[in-house]
Design brief:
Strands 6-8-7-12-13-11-9-10 form an eight-stranded mixed sheet, with helices on both faces. A three-stranded mixed sheet has the order 1-3-2, with helices on both faces. Strands 4-5 form a two-stranded antiparallel ribbon. It is an alpha+beta fold. It contains 15 helices and 13 strands. α10 packs across α11 and α10 crosses α12. One of its GO terms (molecular function) is catalytic activity. Belongs to the amidase family.
Length: 487
């Protein structure tokens, strides 16, 4: 018999509009799952049950004909995202007791749309790494194999969605931080076009690299949450692209992008690194499905190469310079201290030169792939990585291994193009393998429509790990590295 968490986010909302479920019932159901499995998969830093219950009661009081597509649905907010009155640690012991006085714009939008947050999801410290293993929460583990990382920096969000603790979640992506966890955990992780989703009310845009975005089990759920997040806000540093008629959910439901020219490549961009055969196989499968759908798939050169890494590296160092109380600097993790130390040696002239040269390389790269509506490539150079595989290293080696593990995603943060990780592949032992599909700047509609078309061609992506049926953490064997649950 289906349980409430078996329903997609849109199905949960539809059941509430029909009077078959209430938001209070859904929130209580998902809170029980968080209590049973949240620490096992390292999904949450802070759970807010009483706030969630109050929000659910308010959601149930709204007449059915006034509700949006996700009204009353449980969700979660990344711990990098300001949430008024809720502890927000930025994944760091240095901020373990910080409670913001204001909401991020995206938090306001989600609440106004009737979504109900259950709490704050685990992230990497200050968003600096592609794994989420800090001092303020258990490590974010992949529900498909608990010995593996759920990724970062939106690792807790991916763990929560893949384990059925919430159906959709908010995250952010400054160098792959939504798409990497999605690839590892078998989800859809969407980085919107630059400027489409507000980063306010604080911050300066971080050179245009980061963007808030949605993470979910289906393209339609992700598109529906993108409609909630993508609202223009005065004062943002980047002009938002225009929304399509019918919204992004309409594009996903239509799944009709028209005939496209899609450029395929597998050459890594930020590192000269061998690519695992499973990652190439996932791209091959995507190309076959796209061709069968009537698109033209052509081989293209990678837009950028490893020569871009020193430039991106310089910028990433500087982004680690989030203000930290001086007396709490010692509480930062070794990797964060390493990045901040490197940043302190970067002069203004060097930073400006790196930004200028990187943009020049982006312009040349765009010319190399001109004429393509979308680009298709691996999400990662390897399908999975064990928990602790990076953090156990010397910080310099840790940072370099991250570059070699993820040599694709960050380039599309530099270009500002919309980019989505889609769960097209599986390893021999059944672990997820993602691919990246990337669109033209501002054309998120075409990217979402094509992703939905691929999802239909695959017969759907809403698949669940064994832990999905676990009723308590005693049913789960962490040390084996494989989640096992009673049915």
């Amino acid at each position: 018999m289906a349980e409430p968490h078996d329903l997609t986010a849109l199905e949960q909302a539809a059941a509430m509009r029909r009077g078959e479920l209430s938001s209070v019932e859904l929130v209580e159901h998902h809170l029980r799952r968080v209590d049973a499995l949240g620490d096992t998969v390292g999904a949450f830093v802070t759970v807010t049950p009483e706030r969630a219950r109050a929000a659910a009661r308010a959601a149930d009081a709204v007449p059915a004909d006034e509700r949006g597509p996700l009204h009353g649905v449980p969700t979660a907010i990344k711990d990098l995202t300001l949430t008024a009155g809720v502890r927000t640690t930025f994944g760091s012991a240095a901020f373990a007791d910080f409670v913001p006085p204001v909401d991020a714009d995206v938090v306001r939008f989600m609440a106004a749309a009737g979504l109900v947050s259950l709490g704050k999801t685990t992230t990497s410290e200050l968003g600096c790494s592609l794994y989420s293993e800090g001092l303020v929460a258990p490590p974010a583990r992949n529900p498909w194999g608990l010995g593996y990382t759920a990724g970062g920096s939106s690792g807790g969000a991916a763990a929560a969605v893949a384990a059925g603790l919430v159906p959709v979640a908010q995250g952010s992506d400054g160098g792959g931080s939504l798409r990497i966890p999605a690839s590892l955990c078998g989800l859809v992780g969407y980085k919107p076009s630059r400027g489409l989703v507000s980063g306010g009310p604080l911050g300066f845009g971080a050179f245009g690299l980061p963007s808030n975005g949605p993470l979910g089990r289906t393209v339609a759920d992700v598109a529906a949450l993108l409609d909630v997040l993508a609202q223009p806000v005065p004062g943002e540093p980047y002009l938002p692209p225009a929304a399509p008629a019918g919204g992004y959910l309409g594009a996903a439901r239509d799944a009709a992008p028209g005939r496209l020219r899609i450029g395929r490549f597998t050459t890594p961009m930020l590192a000269d690194e061998p690519v695992h055969p499973d990652c190439v196989a996932a791209v091959d499968r995507a190309a076959e499905l796209l061709t069968a759908a009537g698109h033209e798939v052509v081989e293209v050169p990678a837009p950028l190469g490893p020569e871009a890494w020193p430039l991106f590296e310089t910028i990433w160092y500087v982004l680690a310079l989030t203000p930290v109380p001086p007396e709490r600097e010692s509480e930062l993790l070794p990797l964060t201290r390493f990045l901040r130390a490197r940043a302190s040696a970067v002069g203004v002239g060097q930073l400006m030169a790196a930004l200028g040269e990187l943009q020049a390389q982006v312009r040349r790269g765009v010319h190399r792939t001109a004429g393509c509506d979308l680009l298709l490539c691996p999400a990662l150079a390897a399908p999975q990585a064990p928990v602790g595989a990076f953090a156990a290293l010397d910080p310099g080696e840790d940072f370099d291994r991250q570059r070699r593990f993820s040599p694709y995603c960050a380039i599309f943060n530099v270009t500002g193009d919309p980019s989505v990780s889609l769960p097209l592949g599986r390893t021999g032992d059944g672990l997820p393998v993602g691919v990246l599909l990337t669109g033209r700047y501002g054309d998120d509609r075409t990217l979402i429509a094509t992703a939905a078309q691929l999802e239909h061609a695959c017969g759907g992506w809403d698949q669940h790990p064994a832990i999905w049926r676990a009723v308590d953490s005693a049913n789960v064997n962490i040390t084996s590295g494989v989640g096992r649950s009673s049915s």
